[in-house]
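Sorry to interrupt, but I need a hand with the structure work. It will help me judge whether the discrete encoding reads sensibly. Write everything out right here, beneath this request:
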Amino acid sequence: MSSFDYSAPAELFLSKPAKGCRTKYRRFATAAEALRFAVEDLRVPKAFGAWLEVGDERFNSTEIQRLYEALIIRCANLSDRAPARVHNETDGRAIGA
């Protein structure tokens, strides 16, 4: 799953709609958005029989959780590499970005 494209368009399918929602299908601009919705908003994608389609590939609820966790780790690694900005105390402008 290391070559997974989080920026690719994705479609999320639910075999059972979420409470208060009749939709069983949702299209997302990016797979990252779809994964965030499935895990953070649905909370238990397995309970809704969720699966994700990205291009020609299909991912079940267990794979959705793994991809989401890999995304979180990837984002954390990127933020660790970002240079810290130091601000001038007198005027608040960033120094040496």
Notes: Helices lie at 31-41, 61-81. The mean pLDDT is 80. The radius of gyration is 18 Å.
